[in-house]
């Protein structure tokens, strides 16, 4: 009987990992699509390796490990009930971590939040009041909550990262074109699909996104010093 439960747990865990990989890819794609669209780069240009897209979501991976840690421990010991206070504590820690990733300057607020939840959910009367929950229900509920929050998080973070690039003050790339040795200076965004994506100022002093084919370029220099 215990062997059957163990096999079922392994199958369930394998399913979670497979589905989780698909979700992580979806969230990673959401980040890059939003990021490039915010910089006026069409989605059709996106050509990023799958492993890089998934690795973009490594904060989500860390959060999922934190949230599901207790459940995975219960699976390995063939138990099915966990204190709801423990479950909520892991969720609170995960949310605090996501908040810190989005607002790295608010480290003290993050630490204060974590300390608060550690104290609250360790109180005995709180544990008794909240009771228990099955590991399966906990996993399903948290998976849905974290997916919705992660969807919002990566969309917002991509927009924020794109805005940081758009507010650049100094050029960090110089491109010399084949035709007439024309020089283009700007803010390097990304290189993919054999194309350089660069933010540059046009004649009207407006910031525009340039898409330059590698075949059109004579020489490229990444500037190490601040250059206007």
From TrEMBL:
<protein>
    <submittedName>
        <fullName>Uncharacterized protein</fullName>
    </submittedName>
</protein>
<keyword id="KW-1133">Transmembrane helix</keyword>
<feature type="transmembrane region" description="Helical">
    <location>
        <begin position="138"/>
        <end position="155"/>
    </location>
</feature>
<feature type="transmembrane region" description="Helical">
    <location>
        <begin position="52"/>
        <end position="72"/>
    </location>
</feature>
<feature type="transmembrane region" description="Helical">
    <location>
        <begin position="12"/>
        <end position="32"/>
    </location>
</feature>
<keyword id="KW-0812">Transmembrane</keyword>
<keyword id="KW-0472">Membrane</keyword>
<feature type="transmembrane region" description="Helical">
    <location>
        <begin position="107"/>
        <end position="126"/>
    </location>
</feature>
<feature type="transmembrane region" description="Helical">
    <location>
        <begin position="84"/>
        <end position="101"/>
    </location>
</feature>
């Amino acid at each position: 009987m215990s062997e059957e439960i163990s096999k079922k747990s392994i199958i369930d865990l394998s399913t979670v990992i497979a589905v989780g990989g698909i979700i992580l890819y979806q969230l990673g794609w959401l980040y890059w699509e939003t990021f490039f669209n915010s910089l006026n780069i069409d989605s059709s240009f996106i050509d990023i390796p799958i492993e890089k897209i998934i690795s973009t979501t490594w904060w989500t991976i860390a959060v999922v490990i934190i949230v599901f840690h207790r459940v995975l421990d219960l699976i390995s010991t063939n138990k099915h009930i966990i204190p709801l206070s423990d479950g909520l504590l892991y969720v609170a820690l995960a949310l605090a971590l996501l908040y810190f990733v989005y607002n790295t300057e608010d480290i003290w607020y993050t630490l204060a939040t974590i300390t608060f939840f550690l104290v609250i959910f360790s109180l005995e009367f709180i544990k008794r009041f909240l009771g228990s929950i099955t590991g399966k229900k906990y996993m399903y509920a948290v998976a849905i909550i974290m997916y919705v929050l992660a969807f919002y998080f990566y969309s917002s973070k991509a927009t924020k990262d794109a805005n940081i690039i758009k507010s650049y003050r100094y050029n960090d790339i110089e491109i010399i074109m084949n035709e007439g040795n024309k020089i283009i200076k700007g803010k390097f965004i990304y290189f993919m699909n054999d194309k350089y994506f660069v933010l540059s100022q046009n004649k009207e002093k407006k910031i525009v996104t340039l898409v330059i084919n590698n075949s059109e370029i004579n020489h490229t220099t990444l500037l190490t010093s601040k250059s206007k």
